[in-house]
Amino acid sequence: MLAQWLLLVLNGLLVCLADEVVENHNVPQSDIEKTTISYPYKEYLELKPLERNNMLAAFNFEMNSTEFEVYPSQSRPKHYSVFSKLLGPILESTETRELHLRFSQAWYDAENFGKLPHDGRFSGGTGVELWALIEGDTQEEAFKKWIQLANSLSGLFCASLNFIDSASTTYPVTLFKPESTILEKVPLKKNLYLLRSALPREPICTENLTPFLKLLPAKGKAGISSLLTGHKVFNSQWSSMSIDITTECNDSTHCYYNMKQAINMILNVPKTIERDETPIPKPTPGHLLRCDESKKHDAYHCFPMGEPTDLDFKLSTLFGKVIKGGALIAEQPSKVCADVDLQHWEVGTISLAHVESFIEDEKLCFELNTLQEYDLQFKTSQSNKIKQLDNPPILASRSLSGYSQDSGGFRIDLFNPTDDDESVVAFETLPWFIRPYLHTLTITVNGTTTYRVTDVEAKDYITEIIYNLAKDRERPSHLELLMSLPAQTRLKLTFQFDKAMLLYAEYPPDANHGFEIEPAVIAILSPSKEVIYQMRTTTALLTLPTPDFSMPYNVIILTSTVMSLALGAVFNLLCKRTVTEEQAEVELAKHSILNKLQVFKSKIKKLFKKEDTVTDVKK
Amino acid sequence: MPSQAYSFFRESEWNFVRGYRDEIIDHINDSMEDRNNMIGSWLSEVGYKVSRFEAIPPFSNKASNGTENQLVTYGIYHAPKGDDTEAMVLVAPWKTLDGENNINGLALSMGLARYFNRLSIWSKNIIVVFPENGQDTLRSWVDAYHSNLDQTGGSIESAVILEFASDTDGLDYIELNYAGVNGQLPNLDLINCAVMISEHEGFKVSVHNTPLGQLWANDYFSRITTLLKGIYGMATAGLLHGVNGGGGNGCEAFSGWNVQTITIIAKGTSGKDITTLGRVLEAVFRSVNNLLEKFHQSFFFYLLLAPRQFVSIGNYLPAAVLTATSFAVASLSSLMTNNNINNPSTKFNIKVVKLDNLPLISGLLVFMLVTFTMIVFGLFMIYLFSNKIQYDELSEDIYLKITYGLIAANIGSIFTPYLTRLFKYKSSATLSQFVRILNSFSLFYLTFSFIALMVLHFSLSFLISIVALPLTFVKYGPLKRTTTKNVLWLFLSSPFTWLFLLGLFNKLDFQLDVLRNLIQYFEFPLLVKEFNEKVLTVDLTDKELWMGPVDLLYGLVTGYVRLQNWTWLFVTFAWLPVWFCTLIVSCINVETSDVVESDLDKKDQ
What we know:
Low-confidence stretches of chain B: 60-66
Distance between the termini of chain B: 79 Å
CATH topology of the largest domain in chain B: Aminopeptidase
Distance between the termini of chain A: 138 Å
Largest sheet of chain B: 8 strands, mixed
Helix content of chain A: 10-25%
Largest sheet of chain A: 10 strands, mixed
Radius of gyration of chain B: 28 Å
Strand order of the largest sheet of chain B: 1-2-4-3-5-8-6-7
Number of strands of chain A: 26
Oligomer: heterodimer
Number of helices of chain A: 12
Shape of chain B: elongated
Mean pLDDT of chain B: 87
Helix content of chain B: 40-55%
CATH architecture of the largest domain in chain B: 3-Layer(aba) Sandwich
Radius of gyration of chain A: 37 Å
Mean pLDDT of chain A: 86
Number of domains of chain A: 3
Structural class of chain B: alpha/beta
């Protein structure tokens, strides 16, 4: 009964959404699941166990808009089909040909998690990252549109993208290259500009996920996206959301937007289960303690064992929800794959519907082609037996050096664990209040030999430097270092910088915790200069010399006090007369009440005397 | 509020602490390599990113045989969901300050590390560090963290050093240590936080080695005792070595990087259980973790009177200003010829006091020459001690000879005025002016050195200005009349006298609290008892006692290289040159008055 009702609702939805729905409208309801109405939309979930009982959940969504003309000869109402109606007008009004947005948080543990999913193409650094390809006559025009774009997206995604300004925007050279086919197929009328900015400070939270899900045709109500809730996604060990929109064209009149949305997250299975079972942490009860039997253990002593290796959990334990049916409007059924070592893991579906499993790329996959609820169960006694993880081709980290208030340094550690030489780009954007000195750039090879950038030997490692100088309050420093990193080699790059003083009003309030420096992007390039793998370091926290702002107020108060005291004294000196004690006594005596009375008395006496004299005269 | 969250570091967590402790007791005497491997494997089992750092000691510690590299194992817990920019550090050195094995400290740190990993509240990374000792090795690690370590966890906000040497389950009270080198202190908020949490968990907190029996006293006398101990402790932070390969209090190691550091030392063996201490540490970490902002910049200058009472800089700085001013007054007084005892003291008139160019220039030149020589001497000592001779059993004799040689030479030089008395020469007005310039200018220089030091390192400036005060009493005139007094003043104000005295003092088990009790609750039999027990039992033939000045000199001279401690630089750049200038002043026979009688007479007429 419920299912039928759902179908009705779905049918109604389709009517609203699609143009061509008319021809299918009369199809009997029971046949709807088998009909061929389909929209250019695909979704795919991959689950992959990692080291130390972690689990990668990779949600991928892809959709296309209907076709449109790049430069329409006349204005016509537009339809976008499954592509979001919210984004289309923004892209058109700002002539954005490509848009990439990343929301990420937390530290990626390459040792346990292996390579970044999709070679890091869909993973950002901590915070929000945005880059776009914008068409415009001049750079100024493109920048204007960029700000417009950022402001529109800010409202859409509940992120502080409106804080993007010229002081945080760069024009990348070697990285973030456009991929749209519009570049090849359509003769463009204006120039293209690639702009990029990042907001490392932005905390990623539920309010960013909700609009993200709203862009999906099923809006998180059906399909794999029905698993996603804020408190599970953001309670993960690491998470990254991405949106990539490109303009694909056959010729200038047949173009469409292609949008890829992805959420990659890593969950720690035992921790997630524990949080479900005991939301308030408690000490492990005595009978559940897992002690190392080879060492001393009794009722009081226990040497803890490592992580448990027998796991039995469902998707609903990890996500708190089940999959509410497949996304039936997609051109291919929603697919869920488990990338597990089948010798040690059992994966089964729990659903009223019949689910066929099949093997694809050595993964166990399921198609969700009904509206029934689906759940997956994972069981293993040896959770440490997983498929061999791909090791990342590069390991990189960045730290701050030094302790001074007015200067400091960065060091970037790069390690090539592979047996091939790599050509690497390190992309750094530093805010204007960091003033780097490139002449202090040094390279240490394998921790032994150090070269300065001016040395001839350094040219073996640093092949090219692209550097745009910062301008106070207007432009960040933009540094791209092209390096060749020999096999099995550690490189340590260091450079020094000065910290600028800010203007009075530019300082954040006293209760701040420093200035975040956006992550450096490290990428490996192929010989044809295409990005093979990319990763981000973590953000860095910089403290600037902060004056004690309460001091001026203290000084003002102190000086005011002194001045008022001084004023009192000076005023007294000016207005009062200094007299000797004798004079004062005389004066005092004059002003005493007794004296006044006497004076009064004598006056009255005088008065009477006068009268007497007058009468005397008359007499 | 700190310590408000209910902590579950109790019950079965105690079993884990005991489990780790059993293993540590079994392996505490293993080689350094094995111990570090063991703790490293435990940490990575728990889920920390473990790295190892090899501290190359600039000069080895006295008991850490030879030049072996010291290992530091540290684990970073990158907080999930956190932005990986800030870190809190928990340090458990293998040896405590007193050179004992830090068994419970290590076990509790491991237990806490494991426990922290289970909590999901962290927004800052947690770094657990296990250095060999809390001074040189830890310092090298902190230095490397800020210059070349590969594995880092962001800016370090706070550090807690944990020392708990016993292997029992209980402890009586907590001792809090916080003094860093060069007068650098942790933010008072952190100290208040730790005190509040400890008291909330039922511990008494002791600052500056206050013994258990005195922790309930909070009157004028107990506060002034703590104040004095605090001033002494801050002035000597980083100078004193732990015995048997232990280190300093750990706070010294983090000085200079704006890391708020406190050392928590568990004392006693009965009373509260070890997990209670664990809960104190957890609450301190939670408090720092919950900070959304930096520690406030105006809570770094204070003196503690009791764990919960402090004096702020505005109230205590005038004390150092006054002592420094006494030198300025003395300098001025000397310039006005008051130090020349030939002068008629009352009849001063600025117009008749002459100052010629020759004595002015030569006086300044001699002052500069002396200062320069002393600076060269100080730097040479640093070079000698830090590069040329290892400080170990082998070269103990060399150090002994150098130290006592210097002390003897210095004390011997005090008596030179007796020698110069033997030479007869004609005293002139020029000579008198020269002495006057040398005397006044050197005192003036010392005043400014004190004032420059005062704001940064109140305690050092204050203490040195008090012990150097006799320099202002030195007068010149006919040597027969001045020598004996001057020799006394010079002896009292000599840096090497104080090196000798403080060196011996450090090796004696002196407690100011005991003295306070004797005075405050005076009873003669008690005094006699204490005197018999404490003073008469001192073994003067003990070599360790006489090594006191040697240890102190070593700590002073190498302080700059090891911990960036300026004390030796201040001594050789300011105190010693002025002392020598004063010595020169008191060696010269001045028999003429600055005021020419005839001029004075003319004026009077």
